[in-house]
Amino acid sequence: MVVGKLRQALYRRFLLRGRFARARSTAAGARWRSDRSLLAVAHAYEAQGDRLAQPSESLDRGVFVSNGVQHDFGSIEAMRWGVVTRGAPDRSRWEHDFAFFAYSLPVVRSEGWRGARTIARMLQVLENCATQDQSELRMFHWSPIALSSRILNLATSLAIASEVDGDQDDEAAAVISRHIWLCDQILQRTVERYLGYNHAAFGEVALFVAALLFSDQSRAKRQLSRALHVLDAGTLADGMWSERSTTYHVHMLLLCRALRASGVAEGSHAAVLDDLSARMEEALLCIVHPDGEIATFNDAAIDDAVKPSAVGWTPVDGEQTRLLAEAGYARLAGGNWSVLMDAGPMGPNAVIGHGHADFLSVEVCLSGRRLVVDPGVASISAGPARAWTRSAGSHNGPTFVGLEPAEFFGTWRVGRRGRATFSDFLNGGGAKVLASGDCDGYEPWNATVKRTVSIEGGHMAIEDCWEGGVALEPRSSFIIAAEWEVEILDSGLLRLTCSDELEALVELEHGRIVSVNPGQYFPSGPMSPKMGTICSIEPDGDGVARTRWTWSPSDLVSLS
Q1: Coil/strand/helix, residue 537
Q2: SUPFAM superfamilies under this entry (predicted)?
């Protein structure tokens, strides 16, 4: 990996300018067509742009909106990539969306070639900026992941525009296809195979789609084989994407579905794709809440990928308790409670940058409404917010004050890292469900932590145990979602009330409440913080803290 990263850096610094110039000079000869295969890919992939739908009139004025954040450049000609995030690292996702061009999909779906003309003008500005100042080629919007995303989004946009409008706009089509050619030529030399996992998968699938667009069938088949190899290698036996981010799981499943839709896969390739898609769809049932959105463990954010329903997730009838043993995720359900629990490794040792120290953390829903939530992602840029995002102290698991079960540095790097594992799992067929897990991340301090979550008779219980570490401060915190009001009834009892009058009680059967304070969390990423309530508890002298969560009307009446 180190050699691959070094080769990539040297290429982008010293050779990319020449590749860019040569690719631009030959792009005029690129010939594209939208056939049945490409259109089928477009239909499978189109949902990628849903959250970025905006009229071309706004883009024509130089206005772009992502995640509720609007930036007005004044005109298309004044648009610049890579400038909005300078001094504002929390807007990195905005910059990603702007560079990836997924918004072209809803634009051409609603406006056909009229919208494509707007996209073409933007691409001309993007290329001209790089021609005038080739240092731009080392910036994020010319990185392999950005090139991959533009190929996927723009090629499928051409297919959709052709479907929507019978009369092709030759000029707009030429500009867009030439830009795809340019991205394709550069990506062939820079695809991040040395990284593997999601970066390699996006790159290989993008090169496959480019081959379809330019009618290179033999190359398309080679690229299909390469893409399948990466996707298959990155998927665990239980169907979870091995980076353990629910967002990337959905991304990778979308790529699988797009490949399958193309119809290019035959024989063993088709069988691999069918198997991958089926296992990954099955895994969704363990990582998607009743509200139809993903859990936000590790580097995951709601709406950062397509909706789970766009990749095969459907609500299931009845209560579903499931375990992804290799991934380390469990779902417990019963009595209107639904709990997702993380008791796995941070991620694959080779690429662990998307992992958080959320060992033994939980997310909890009551009657389909999120109650206990993960802190989400406050930043994807190095700094205090990124450190907080990945820390154990910001999560819902048992920990020790001031200690970390892993050593984090920079944006993606991890040194020493612990891991969690499930030690017990009981699916009692509705009578009682239970999951227990341990974390070894505190062994340097001769300490361990354990959590058991159970649902029985309409109640949920969470028991945390700390062992060893005599001079350490054990602590557990629960982030209560913004929709819930938290009221302290006495020293060991909390009432949680949702806006629609749904109520729950949290009784501390063992241990004591340390604090109840407002606190931010980031379910949709850095640009959309929410203000919840953080309830912190500590154990009694025996190292045990146990909370009992109830919601039945009879329990509430007894307190009135």
Answers
A1: strand
A2: Chondroitin AC/alginate lyase (SSF48230)
